[in-house]
Amino acid sequence: MSLSIYDIDPAHSGAHFSVRHMMISNVKGEFSKVAGTVTFDPDNPAASQVEATIDATSLHTRDEQRDGHLKSPDFFDVAKFPEIRFVSRNVEAQGFGEFLVKGDLTIHGVTKEVTLRVEGPTPDAKDPWGNTKAGATATTKINRKDFGLVWNVALEAGGVLVGEDVSISLELELTKKA
């Protein structure tokens, strides 16, 4: 049995997003506080599991005013919904080091099934302090309106201020449990 259990290392992991702004550019942001557990069995990927929690208050887009608006009831409403959560239901191998992870994503109190495309985990490596580490990258795309994030403004020239499709990328560093 080659089952390994890892904790997501919050100091070396992040959840990043990109969304269209004014129909002309993309605004990027991140949530810097990601925690959770990855249980991985390379011999039986279906036995693998992922549970992750993102602190929605850790949102940062390099613009304090925009961050405040995104944290407000118009968008994430972090006072009422301080966490974003993902719990896997199915892990399926797609080739060497590539997996599809289907699970429930909860944002803004709304839970929907999403599929993450995962690269990794990398082979285990020892850090200078003797901890066993691995890494993984996961990506997906969601429609923010599916999660109740519906605020927008129509533009004079046509279109809207904020796009509906949101690209999500998770960069995870994992610490193997003893």
Strand and helix layout:
Blueprint (H helix, E strand, L loop, with lengths): L3 E5 L5 E8 L3 E7 L2 E7 L8 E7 L3 E2 L3 H8 L11 E13 L2 E10 L2 E10 L5 E2 L5 E12 L18 E15 L2
Antiparallel strand pairs: 1-4, 1-12, 2-3, 2-12, 3-6, 4-5, 5-7, 7-8, 8-9, 9-11, 10-11, 11-12
Summarize the structure.
The chain is mainly beta.
The strand order across the widest sheet is 1-4-5-7-8-9-11-12
Number of helices: 1
Q: Structural class given helices, strands, pairing?
A: mainly beta
Secondary-structure element sequence? EEEEEEHEEEEEE
Computed CA radius of gyration, to the nearest angstrom: 17 Å
Helix content: under 10%
Number of strands: 12
* Global outline: globular
Instruction: Return the CATH topology.
Output: Lipocalin
In CATH, the architecture is: Beta Barrel
Question: How would you sum up the major sheet?
Answer: 8 strands, antiparallel, barrel
The number of distinct structural domains comes to: 1
Could you list the spans in which at least 5 consecutive residues all have pLDDT below 50?
none
CATH superfamily heading: Lipid/polyisoprenoid-binding, YceI-like
Compute the average pLDDT. Answer: 86
Distance linking N and C termini:
15 Å
